[in-house]
Design brief:
The complex is a heterodimer. In chain A, 46% of the residues lie in helices and 11% in strands. By secondary structure, chain A is of the alpha+beta class. Chain A contains eleven helices and seven strands. By secondary structure, chain B is of the alpha/beta class. Chain B is 25% helix and 24% strand. In chain B, helix 9 (356-365) packs across helix 10 (376-389). In chain B, 33% of the residues are buried. The chains are: A alpha+beta, B alpha/beta. The A-B interface holds A 1-6, 213-214, 282, 306-309, 316, 318-320, 322-327, 329-334 and B 5, 7-9, 11-13, 15-19, 22-23, 27-28, 55, 87, 89-93, 95-96, 99.
Chain lengths: 335, 488
């Protein structure tokens, strides 16, 4: 059994966003200021709030997207989703214009407006939201429709995340990060994305099936359960819950091919992680975790080898078995 | 080992050990690794901490509830378990957590069983913090002071020596003497750790509390028994401002023949009455004499007419103060001054063994004659005399410019074949050195070879004296291959 406490700690710090941590709030502030400066939107009671993985502290190196949830509590009900997206485009394009290559920095998307920040190499997604009739949740524009809205509660997820983290001695958030990193290493740019895995991890934790007494046990336990959730999703179409909206499941865009690949890769990953945890040789275990977690956004290997081992997982020749004879043999020595 | 390898070794050992602890159900806390040790049908939670010198120092193990585990001779002052004897450092075996945890389990099982077949370590010192008084308190035979008052007087080198006496009523403030009491605790089942523990073991009639408060007793010597062994410890005791009595341990030790002889080896008592003559107390013979005395021989005859010269000193037992003395007298003076031997036990003969009568007398009056003259004529004389008497001579010498030493039993025991001549196959590469006069060149034998050969000679001598000879003919050994060359 290899728990590799220090190496998990090192892996987590290797996937921790670095410069993005300063740039993301700055980009967010610029978008927020632009929206709040508009008279019409002010009339709608504009109140942007940061959401997404960055806000929930589960993002990993590198952060590419920062989500801003723009609450408009006083927007009249006759303003359509198209109207408000048009309005956002007008305000943001007027503010951010074009980049040095002459491309518009503001891009229209199905549910939001994306503003690029080439100097930071990241994007801010501004999502307009109007109150749902229940007064507690929100509605955001739905894809492809003139005036269709879909219910959401992103801030709810932020607080649920913190609660889950506290309930598990601070192991939930780092485990989500490790699962997101595993997704990135195993699936690359293919879908499902990090959000799906985050919510699958939340569901796994919420089911009570994830436990452990250290990071290694949490990681392996969560990976095993998430791979089952993915299996059920792909094979039986059992949805992944949106924990902020009772009875709702999340929608993802992934092809059948992508889903099948994800299912296989994660099933293999779960077996490999389980074997690594049971492995008595720390070098072999580290090699397995290394393969699962791949490289970070800076192209650096995430999971380091423990001391005393070569990069291929073999024991270093200079050393060094614990308990190896470093004292000449014999009993009752005397000098 | 480069520093990188060293760091790698330490980091690996530490992580490997911790991995093992995790496997054993231990979890890390701020204070260390907590986990259960199962023994005798129950479990006791312990805290394991890796000290800064790990893996070169075993981890410390303390029960999390200090008083739930019985206090015994197998716990340290701080409550940690005494798991590894100082002499048990074979291979740093504790770096494997599973073995270490097994060892802790065995400790608990032994404790549950009341420590049967216990090793009687006598080390009450471990259970008290050290005093700031760094002087060494020496005591003689404590039986004569048992349950009596004593006085420690300052001596050279910050030593305090014990004597009899109580503090005078009008003691001078300037007196540097310290007064104390010797208490016999008898058999001590569990080591005392506080003044209260000690006080409970001493006859209340002595009224030690009051005497300490009155500063009539400042040093408390405790004598105690553990199994068949006696132990002693000296403690610094003083009244505290809070009304209690503080106890710290003093650095103390026995200044007795028994303490010295305990370290002379197991043969020492058997050697006490043997008589040994050493013919020739030059380099080899002087160290033979010294080692024999240290090993327990108390009756020596030293035969040599030669005088100590400055050039001898580097390979001889004695120092510059002996230059000008005959070698026999010089060695005798050295032994009497530094070893536990009386002058009357050493006879010095400032004469050569040049007649059969002298040889016979020497052989008849001694249990063993060691010939360290390296003189062919003397060796032959002693050999023939020994043969005709049915006695034995142990003859030791260097050959081949110090590259070989040979120790011969003359004549060999039980008609054994003598060792063949020693010879080396290389030409001498350095010029020989002569001092003035008509003699042989100076031997280039190095001092370490002299001391080694002397030790081996004594080993054979003791074998002959105790009727367990190492070899019927002796031993020949080449100790240098350069520049003199290899053995033929």
């Amino acid at each position: 059994m290899a728990h590799l406490k220090q190496q998990f700690k090192d892996a987590l710090s290797s996937i921790e966003p670095s410069d993005d941590k300063t740039n993301a709030p700055e980009a967010h502030r610029l978008v927020r200021d632009a929206l709040e400066a508009d008279a019409k939107l002010t009339e709608y009671g504009v109140s942007p709030v940061l959401i997404g993985s960055y806000k929930r502290n589960v993002s990993i190196k590198r952060i590419k997207d920062v989500d801003v949830f723009v609450r408009l509590p006083d927007m009249p009900s006759d303003v359509t989703s198209k109207d408000i997206l048009d309005k956002f485009f007008a305000v943001l394009h007027a503010e951010f214009g074009t980049d040095s290559d002459g491309h518009r920095r503001t891009k229209r998307q199905d549910r939001s407006l994306q503003v690029s920040f080439p100097e930071y190499d990241l994007y801010v997604d501004a999502v307009p939201a109007r109150p749902h009739w229940d007064g507690e949740t929100w509605e955001i524009p739905q894809k492809g429709d003139e005036n269709e809205w879909v219910r959401t509660n992103p801030e709810g997820l932020t607080s649920l995340s913190s609660e889950m983290n506290a309930a598990h001695d601070g192991y939930y958030v780092p485990t989500v990060k490790l699962l997101r990193q595993t997704r990135r290493a195993q699936l690359g740019k293919k879908k499902p994305g990090g959000f799906f895995f985050e919510l699958a991890t939340y569901q796994a934790f919420a089911s009570g099936a994830v436990s452990g007494s250290d990071q290694a046990e949490y990681y392996v336990s969560a990976l095993t359960k998430v791979s089952k959730i993915l299996e059920n999703f792909v094979t039986y179409g059992i949805g992944v819950n949106d924990p902020t909206l009772a009875g709702a499941t999340i929608h993802i865009r992934a092809s059948d091919e992508e889903l099948e690949a994800a299912r296989t890769r994660f099933a293999d990953a779960a077996i490999s992680a389980d074997d690594a945890l049971a492995q008595e040789d720390e070098g072999k275990a580290a090699l397995a975790f290394q393969k699962l977690l791949g490289k970070n956004g800076d192209d650096k290997t995430v999971f380091p080898m423990p001391p005393g081992f070569n990069e291929d997982g073999s024991k270093r020749a200079s050393a060094i078995l614990a308990g190896a004879r470093v004292v000449p043999a014999g009993t009752r020595t005397f000098g | 080992m480069s520093l990188t390898e060293y760091d790698d070794y330490v980091a690996y050992s530490r992580q490997h050990f911790e991995e093992g602890l995790i496997r054993g159900g231990f979890t890390e806390s701020d204070a260390g690794w907590r986990g259960p040790i199962s023994h005798s049908g129950r479990a006791t939670e312990v805290l394991i901490t890796l000290r800064s010198r790990f893996p070169f120092q075993p981890p410390r193990v303390v029960p999390t509830e200090l008083d739930l585990v019985p206090w015994s001779w197998h716990r340290e002052l701080n409550g940690s378990l005494c798991l590894i004897a100082e002499d048990d450092h074979d291979g740093l075996w504790w770096t494997e957590a599973s073995e270490f945890v097994e060892h802790i389990t065995a400790w608990f099982e032994q404790a549950d069983a009341g420590w049967p077949d216990d090793r009687p370590d006598l080390d009450l010192d471990r259970y008290f913090d050290p005093s700031e008084d760094a002087r060494v308190y020496l005591y003689d035979d404590l039986a004569q002071h048992r349950n009596g008052f004593v006085r420690f007087r300052p001596a050279k080198n910050d030593v305090m020596r014990i004597g009899t006496g109580t503090r005078p009523a009008k003691a001078s403030k300037h007196s540097k003497d310290r007064f104390g009491y010797v208490a016999d605790l008898g058999e001590v089942a569990a080591p005392p750790r506080t003044w209260e523990d000690i006080s409970a073991l001493i006859d209340p009639a002595v009224d030690l509390d009051r005497r300490i408060r009155d500063h009539a007793v400042a040093v408390l010597v405790l004598i105690y028994r553990r199994g068949a062994h006696d132990g002693a410890i000296a403690l610094d005791v003083w009244p505290t401002t809070a009304g209690g009595i503080a106890v710290r341990r003093l650095r103390s030790g026995a200044d007795t023949n028994a303490a010295r002889e305990a370290r002379a080896g197991i043969l020492a008592p058997a050697l006490r009455d043997h008589r040994v003559a050493i013919v020739g107390v030059g380099a080899l013979g002087s160290f033979v004499a010294d080692t024999l005395v240290r090993s327990g021989v108390r009756h020596l005859t030293l035969v040599d007419t030669d005088v100590v010269m400055p050039g001898n000193l580097v390979r001889h037992l004695v120092g510059p103060e002996a230059v000008g003395l005959t070698k026999g007298k010089a060695v005798k003076d050295h032994l009497v001054a530094r070893a536990d031997i009386q002058g009357s036990d050493i006879q010095v003969i400032d004469d050569n063994i040049s007649s059969g009568d002298a040889a016979v007398e020497l052989l008849q009056n001694h249990d063993l004659v060691v010939n360290a003259t390296a003189d062919f004529a003397t060796t032959a004389l002693l050999h023939v005399a020994a043969k005709s008497l049915g006695a034995r001579v142990l003859s030791a010498a260097f050959q081949n410019d110090g590259a070989t030493y040979r120790i011969d039993v003359l004549p060999p025991l039980d008609g054994a074949t003598p060792h063949p001549p020693s010879a080396l196959n290389a030409e001498r590469s350095t010029a020989e050195v002569f001092e003035a006069g008509c003699g042989s060149p100076i031997s280039p034998t190095p001092p370490y070879a002299v001391i080694e050969a002397a030790a081996v000679t004594v080993r054979h001598a003791l074998g002959l004296l105790t009727n367990s000879p190492l070899h019927p003919a002796g031993e020949v050994r080449t100790i240098a291959t350069s520049p003199q060359g290899d053995e033929l």
